[in-house]
Amino acid sequence: MATEHNNGHGCCKSGPGYASPLEAISGPRETLIYVTAVYSGTGIEKPDYLATVDVDPNSATYSRVIHRLQVPHLGDELHHTGWNSCSSCHGDPSAQRRFLIAPALVSGRIYVIDTKTNPKAPSLHKVVEPADIIQKTGLAYPHTSHCLASGEIMISCLGDKDGNAEGNGFLLLDEKFDVKGRWEKPGNSPLFGYDFWYQPRHNTMISTSWGAPAAFTKGFNLQHVADGLYGKHLHVYSWPGGELRQTVDLGNDGLLPLEIRFLHDPSKDTGFVGSALASNMIRFFKTDDGSWSHEVSIPVKPLKVQNWILPEMPGLITDFLISLDDRFLYFVNWLHGDIRQYNIEDLKKPVLTGQVWVGGLIQKGSPIVAVDDDGKTWQSDVPEIQGKKLRGGPQMIQLSLDGKRLYVTNSLFSTWDKQFYPDLVEKGSHILQIDVDTEKGGLKLNTNFFVDFGAEPDGPSLAHEMRYPGGDCTSDIWI
């Protein structure tokens, strides 16, 4: 498969995706979203599933789940997904975006789902069994999946079969989704694993650090941070060589760095990473000597609180994304309950342009209250939607190609959901849509859209990551 970058010139038939991020903005409006929905860890003995949600406002089934593809096993914990082919393969007319790769974080299985034959009713194409992965690579706990321009699939794995972080690394599947081996060179595995993003024009891949599966699968324990079972580093690799070139220590400002995104413009040598526990958005960038550095770009102050497990509550930035034109950055505070929009046209001076409260632990009606420096207490005003009280906090987000609609789910990981938002497990997730002002900035909850996973046929389920059939701003990479 071609690896040269394609600027969209010429009349030849092209491959999947778009020639550039700016071309993608003009792509068709989304009509479907695929959402991972979880029963693992909820007490309901049913398999997890991929939900197909109708997001076409002209459809009779708008804002409803129209299909559920159950996987064949219990206890998987479907989490993040990726494509077999994206805009990185745009220069190859033989490639097509057909299969959604769905790693199961807990069981270690990897499901390959056919979305092309019937986009409204995807079907299971193949299952990669954990025993095969462990035998050939030693890897377990698969998380982020990205397609490569070579046709291979690369998946970050967070540990070994026993949950030790020391065994983590990057799994390669070939074009038939058979286990090929590890991507990184021997002796070049990271300290911890989680997310990753590659920027070929800078010959670089950077990965992040969550923690040891033996720790995070049991729920969050602050002592585990002190015990060194959680990460605070970025790992800089040569691309596509797989050599660990630099380990960037983010320090206490960067505890639990989760999602990472380069700017979409493939010529840019900068991006952002969200530090969950420290609740900082951190910008990373290449320096004059070719190494990588970082700075705290957007800090979220912890709130002083009453009636909670700690005297201060971090925002817990669990997801963020960047609009395809690289103008706006969006992130969520899962515990505080707000979604924020920043203008990042001046990368060194992000400007808050939108904020909306859609859940969280300090909303009105909660026993937990925030305390200002002057001693006054307050709670956030979270609206009901279609007569339903919003549950949990904003967690995963996905943006429409044109940047005008932001979709939001609220489940992080079943064990953590149970710990911080027990009512979320009991009553189920939901998906919200936020209308975005792409001119001046601004966020507004769309009251016509509400997908209630508390009303599912087999009982309340936990909705996590979202993908459009045509690709989106968190799965597509341009080369």
- Give the overall silhouette: globular
Radius of gyration of CA atoms, rounded to a whole number: 21 Å
Q: How helical, in percent, are the residues?
A: under 10%
User: Which sheet architecture does the biggest sheet show?
Assistant: 4 strands, antiparallel
Number of helices: 6
Number of strands: 32
Order of strands, main sheet, comes to: 3-2-1-32
How far apart, in Å, are the first and last alpha carbons? 13 Å
Whole-number mean pLDDT: 95
Q: In oligomeric terms, what are we looking at?
A: single chain
Q: Determine the strand fraction and express it as a percent band.
A: 35-45%
Low-confidence sequence ranges: 1-12
Class by alpha and beta content: mainly beta
Organism: Crotalaria pallida
InterPro entries: Se-bd (IPR008826)
Family: Belongs to the selenium-binding protein family.
Protein name: Selenium binding protein
